[in-house]
Amino acid sequence: MPSNRQFNRFAQSYRRYSLIQKRVAGFLARQVARSGYAQDRIVDLGCGSGGYFMAHERTFASYLAIDVSAEMVRIHPEGQGVEKMVGDFNDPELFRSLKERDFDLIVSSSALQWAKDLDATLGLVATLKKPVALSIFTSGTFAALHRSIGVTSPIRSKEETLDLIEKHFDARVDILQYRLYFSDRISMLRYIKRSGVSGGERKVGYRRLKEALENYPLAYLQFEVVTAVGK
Ligand SMILES: C[S@@+](CC[C@H](N)C(=O)[O-])C[C@H]1O[C@@H](n2cnc3c(N)ncnc32)[C@H](O)[C@@H]1O
Question: Using a 6 Å cutoff on CB, does residue 18 contact ligand 1?
Fold first, then answer.
Protein backbone atom coordinates (compact mmCIF):
# COMPACT_ATOMS: atom_id res chain seq x y z
CA MET A 1 0.00 0.00 0.00
CA PRO A 2 1.61 3.35 -0.97
CA SER A 3 2.25 5.80 1.88
CA ASN A 4 1.10 9.44 2.01
CA ARG A 5 4.68 10.37 1.19
CA GLN A 6 4.49 8.37 -2.04
CA PHE A 7 1.21 10.05 -3.03
CA ASN A 8 2.85 13.43 -2.30
CA ARG A 9 5.89 12.47 -4.37
CA PHE A 10 3.78 11.49 -7.38
CA ALA A 11 1.47 14.49 -7.11
CA GLN A 12 3.36 16.66 -9.60
CA SER A 13 3.59 14.06 -12.37
CA TYR A 14 0.17 12.55 -11.60
CA ARG A 15 -1.81 14.87 -13.85
CA ARG A 16 0.32 13.99 -16.86
CA TYR A 17 0.16 10.25 -16.22
CA SER A 18 -3.50 9.94 -15.31
CA LEU A 19 -4.95 9.24 -18.74
CA ILE A 20 -6.93 6.17 -17.61
CA GLN A 21 -8.20 7.82 -14.42
CA LYS A 22 -9.40 10.70 -16.60
CA ARG A 23 -11.41 8.32 -18.78
CA VAL A 24 -12.79 6.57 -15.70
CA ALA A 25 -13.85 9.91 -14.15
CA GLY A 26 -15.56 10.86 -17.44
CA PHE A 27 -17.46 7.56 -17.48
CA LEU A 28 -18.48 7.96 -13.84
CA ALA A 29 -19.68 11.54 -14.43
CA ARG A 30 -21.84 10.35 -17.36
CA GLN A 31 -23.33 7.56 -15.24
CA VAL A 32 -24.20 10.07 -12.52
CA ALA A 33 -25.84 12.37 -15.08
CA ARG A 34 -27.91 9.39 -16.32
CA SER A 35 -28.88 8.37 -12.78
CA GLY A 36 -30.76 11.62 -12.25
CA TYR A 37 -29.26 12.04 -8.75
CA ALA A 38 -28.82 15.61 -7.61
CA GLN A 39 -25.20 16.65 -7.91
CA ASP A 40 -25.05 20.29 -6.95
CA ARG A 41 -23.20 19.57 -3.71
CA ILE A 42 -20.48 16.97 -3.95
CA VAL A 43 -18.00 15.37 -1.55
CA ASP A 44 -15.03 13.83 -3.40
CA LEU A 45 -12.95 11.27 -1.46
CA GLY A 46 -9.40 10.89 -2.81
CA CYS A 47 -9.89 13.88 -5.09
CA GLY A 48 -6.26 13.89 -6.31
CA SER A 49 -5.48 16.68 -8.74
CA GLY A 50 -9.17 16.96 -9.68
CA GLY A 51 -9.95 14.11 -12.10
CA TYR A 52 -13.64 13.99 -11.23
CA PHE A 53 -14.04 17.74 -10.82
CA MET A 54 -12.50 18.37 -14.23
CA ALA A 55 -14.79 15.84 -15.92
CA HIS A 56 -17.44 18.57 -15.70
CA GLU A 57 -17.81 21.91 -17.39
CA ARG A 58 -20.35 23.08 -14.86
CA THR A 59 -19.85 24.79 -11.52
CA PHE A 60 -21.09 23.30 -8.25
CA ALA A 61 -22.93 24.93 -5.35
CA SER A 62 -20.34 23.14 -3.19
CA TYR A 63 -17.53 20.74 -3.97
CA LEU A 64 -15.60 19.37 -1.00
CA ALA A 65 -12.33 17.92 -2.34
CA ILE A 66 -10.68 15.58 0.18
CA ASP A 67 -7.35 13.81 -0.13
CA VAL A 68 -4.86 12.27 2.29
CA SER A 69 -2.01 13.95 0.39
CA ALA A 70 -1.62 17.64 1.19
CA GLU A 71 0.22 18.05 -2.11
CA MET A 72 -2.71 16.61 -4.09
CA VAL A 73 -5.10 18.88 -2.20
CA ARG A 74 -2.86 21.84 -3.03
CA ILE A 75 -2.96 21.16 -6.79
CA HIS A 76 -6.70 20.36 -6.94
CA PRO A 77 -8.36 23.15 -8.97
CA GLU A 78 -9.87 26.08 -7.08
CA GLY A 79 -13.20 27.47 -8.19
CA GLN A 80 -16.63 28.62 -7.22
CA GLY A 81 -17.92 26.45 -4.38
CA VAL A 82 -14.69 24.45 -4.07
CA GLU A 83 -13.45 23.69 -0.57
CA LYS A 84 -10.38 21.53 0.00
CA MET A 85 -9.53 19.36 2.95
CA VAL A 86 -6.76 16.95 3.93
CA GLY A 87 -8.54 13.81 5.15
CA ASP A 88 -8.13 10.06 5.28
CA PHE A 89 -10.91 7.74 4.11
CA ASN A 90 -9.54 5.06 6.45
CA ASP A 91 -10.35 7.28 9.41
CA PRO A 92 -13.88 7.10 10.96
CA GLU A 93 -13.34 10.65 12.28
CA LEU A 94 -13.54 11.99 8.69
CA PHE A 95 -16.99 10.44 8.28
CA ARG A 96 -18.14 11.82 11.64
CA SER A 97 -17.25 15.31 10.38
CA LEU A 98 -18.98 14.67 7.02
CA LYS A 99 -22.20 13.80 8.86
CA GLU A 100 -22.32 17.40 10.02
CA ARG A 101 -22.43 18.62 6.42
CA ASP A 102 -25.18 18.78 3.88
CA PHE A 103 -24.44 17.45 0.39
CA ASP A 104 -26.12 15.51 -2.45
CA LEU A 105 -23.61 12.95 -3.64
CA ILE A 106 -20.45 11.25 -2.41
CA VAL A 107 -17.94 10.52 -5.13
CA SER A 108 -14.69 8.60 -5.11
CA SER A 109 -12.95 8.01 -8.41
CA SER A 110 -9.87 5.78 -8.79
CA ALA A 111 -8.93 6.05 -5.12
CA LEU A 112 -10.70 3.45 -2.93
CA GLN A 113 -8.50 0.59 -4.18
CA TRP A 114 -6.06 2.04 -1.62
CA ALA A 115 -8.48 1.71 1.30
CA LYS A 116 -6.79 -0.35 4.05
CA ASP A 117 -10.08 -2.11 4.75
CA LEU A 118 -12.51 -1.51 1.88
CA ASP A 119 -15.35 -3.19 3.76
CA ALA A 120 -14.91 -0.75 6.66
CA THR A 121 -14.53 2.32 4.43
CA LEU A 122 -17.58 1.46 2.31
CA GLY A 123 -19.49 0.84 5.55
CA LEU A 124 -18.53 4.34 6.71
CA VAL A 125 -19.55 5.83 3.35
CA ALA A 126 -22.91 4.05 3.65
CA THR A 127 -23.53 5.63 7.10
CA LEU A 128 -23.72 9.00 5.31
CA LYS A 129 -26.95 7.78 3.64
CA LYS A 130 -26.37 9.65 0.38
CA PRO A 131 -26.16 8.45 -3.23
CA VAL A 132 -22.66 7.31 -4.18
CA ALA A 133 -20.60 7.28 -7.37
CA LEU A 134 -17.52 5.10 -7.01
CA SER A 135 -14.81 3.79 -9.29
CA ILE A 136 -12.36 1.28 -7.88
CA PHE A 137 -9.38 -0.28 -9.68
CA THR A 138 -9.08 -4.07 -9.37
CA SER A 139 -6.25 -6.61 -9.57
CA GLY A 140 -7.04 -7.00 -13.29
CA THR A 141 -4.95 -3.82 -13.56
CA PHE A 142 -1.42 -4.67 -14.75
CA ALA A 143 -2.45 -8.35 -14.46
CA ALA A 144 -0.15 -9.70 -17.20
CA LEU A 145 2.74 -7.58 -15.93
CA HIS A 146 2.30 -8.85 -12.38
CA ARG A 147 2.21 -12.42 -13.71
CA SER A 148 5.36 -11.94 -15.75
CA ILE A 149 7.36 -10.53 -12.81
CA GLY A 150 5.84 -12.97 -10.32
CA VAL A 151 4.20 -10.54 -7.90
CA THR A 152 0.64 -10.47 -6.64
CA SER A 153 -1.42 -7.36 -7.09
CA PRO A 154 -1.68 -5.27 -3.93
CA ILE A 155 -5.30 -4.42 -4.76
CA ARG A 156 -8.50 -6.46 -4.56
CA SER A 157 -9.96 -8.67 -7.25
CA LYS A 158 -13.04 -7.70 -9.25
CA GLU A 159 -15.07 -10.36 -7.38
CA GLU A 160 -14.09 -9.09 -3.93
CA THR A 161 -14.74 -5.48 -4.93
CA LEU A 162 -18.16 -6.33 -6.39
CA ASP A 163 -19.14 -8.34 -3.28
CA LEU A 164 -18.28 -5.42 -1.01
CA ILE A 165 -20.18 -2.94 -3.16
CA GLU A 166 -23.21 -5.22 -3.15
CA LYS A 167 -22.95 -5.62 0.63
CA HIS A 168 -23.21 -1.87 1.25
CA PHE A 169 -25.14 -0.38 -1.69
CA ASP A 170 -27.91 -0.99 -4.14
CA ALA A 171 -26.01 0.28 -7.15
CA ARG A 172 -25.77 0.01 -10.90
CA VAL A 173 -22.40 -1.59 -11.50
CA ASP A 174 -20.16 -1.55 -14.59
CA ILE A 175 -16.83 -3.21 -15.28
CA LEU A 176 -14.43 -1.15 -17.38
CA GLN A 177 -11.39 -2.58 -19.14
CA TYR A 178 -8.77 -0.50 -20.89
CA ARG A 179 -5.53 -1.08 -22.75
CA LEU A 180 -2.87 1.58 -22.91
CA TYR A 181 -0.38 1.01 -25.74
CA PHE A 182 3.29 2.08 -25.62
CA SER A 183 5.74 2.47 -28.49
CA ASP A 184 8.69 1.34 -26.34
CA ARG A 185 9.57 -0.25 -23.01
CA ILE A 186 11.11 2.89 -21.51
CA SER A 187 7.89 4.85 -21.80
CA MET A 188 6.00 1.85 -20.37
CA LEU A 189 8.42 1.74 -17.43
CA ARG A 190 8.10 5.50 -16.89
CA TYR A 191 4.31 5.22 -16.94
CA ILE A 192 4.31 2.37 -14.39
CA LYS A 193 6.55 4.35 -12.05
CA ARG A 194 4.74 7.67 -12.32
CA SER A 195 1.05 6.89 -12.74
CA GLY A 196 0.60 5.73 -9.12
CA VAL A 197 -2.03 3.26 -10.38
CA SER A 198 -0.88 -0.04 -8.98
CA GLY A 199 1.96 -0.71 -6.58
CA GLY A 200 2.80 -4.42 -6.60
CA GLU A 201 5.63 -3.88 -9.05
CA ARG A 202 7.22 -1.38 -6.62
CA LYS A 203 8.19 -4.39 -4.51
CA VAL A 204 10.56 -5.58 -7.24
CA GLY A 205 12.60 -2.40 -7.66
CA TYR A 206 13.44 -0.39 -10.73
CA ARG A 207 16.21 -2.63 -12.11
CA ARG A 208 14.31 -5.89 -11.92
CA LEU A 209 11.21 -4.27 -13.34
CA LYS A 210 13.25 -2.89 -16.26
CA GLU A 211 14.73 -6.36 -16.93
CA ALA A 212 11.31 -8.02 -16.62
CA LEU A 213 9.83 -5.59 -19.10
CA GLU A 214 12.35 -6.80 -21.73
CA ASN A 215 10.46 -10.13 -21.69
CA TYR A 216 6.98 -8.69 -21.22
CA PRO A 217 5.02 -10.04 -24.19
CA LEU A 218 2.46 -7.25 -24.61
CA ALA A 219 2.74 -3.77 -26.12
CA TYR A 220 0.10 -2.53 -23.72
CA LEU A 221 -0.78 -2.33 -20.03
CA GLN A 222 -4.19 -3.53 -18.85
CA PHE A 223 -6.55 -1.76 -16.50
CA GLU A 224 -9.72 -3.03 -14.86
CA VAL A 225 -12.09 -0.83 -12.92
CA VAL A 226 -15.42 -1.41 -11.20
CA THR A 227 -17.83 1.51 -11.12
CA ALA A 228 -20.94 1.79 -8.95
CA VAL A 229 -23.64 4.47 -8.91
CA GLY A 230 -26.46 3.99 -6.43
CA LYS A 231 -27.59 4.37 -2.86
C1 LIG B 1 -5.20 7.48 -8.56
S2 LIG B 1 -5.52 8.95 -7.64
C3 LIG B 1 -7.13 9.45 -8.19
C4 LIG B 1 -7.36 10.92 -8.06
C5 LIG B 1 -8.65 11.48 -8.62
N6 LIG B 1 -9.82 11.04 -7.87
C7 LIG B 1 -8.81 11.18 -10.10
O8 LIG B 1 -9.83 10.59 -10.47
O9 LIG B 1 -7.91 11.53 -10.88
C10 LIG B 1 -5.80 8.31 -6.02
C11 LIG B 1 -5.87 9.40 -4.96
O12 LIG B 1 -6.31 8.81 -3.74
C13 LIG B 1 -5.65 9.47 -2.68
N14 LIG B 1 -5.70 8.61 -1.49
C15 LIG B 1 -5.04 7.44 -1.28
N16 LIG B 1 -5.30 6.97 -0.06
C17 LIG B 1 -6.17 7.85 0.51
C18 LIG B 1 -6.81 7.91 1.78
N19 LIG B 1 -6.58 6.96 2.70
N20 LIG B 1 -7.67 8.93 2.05
C21 LIG B 1 -7.87 9.91 1.11
N22 LIG B 1 -7.26 9.92 -0.11
C23 LIG B 1 -6.43 8.90 -0.41
C24 LIG B 1 -4.23 9.68 -3.22
O25 LIG B 1 -3.53 10.66 -2.49
C26 LIG B 1 -4.54 10.07 -4.66
O27 LIG B 1 -4.69 11.47 -4.80
Answer: yes
Mean pLDDT computed over 122-135? 98
Ligand 1 atom nearest 91 alpha carbon: 19
Kindly give the number of the ligand 1 atom that is closest to the alpha carbon of 110: 3
**CA-to-CA distance for 117 and 165, rounded, in angstroms?**
13
* Per-residue pLDDT, 76: 97
Domain total in the chain: 1
Candidates 20, 67, 112: which one to mutate for ligand 1, based on the most atoms within 8 Å of Cβ? Answer: 67
The 10s digit of each residue's pLDDT in 58-100 is 999 999 999 999 999 999 999 999 999 999 999 999 999 999 9
Tell me if 88 CB under 6 Å of ligand 1: yes
The reply to whether 187 falls in a domain is no
User: Which DSSP category does 16 fall into?
Assistant: G
Distance CA 179, CA 198 (A): 15
CATH number, domain with residue 62:
3.40.50.150
Residues spanned by the domain of 75: 4-141+152-180+222-230
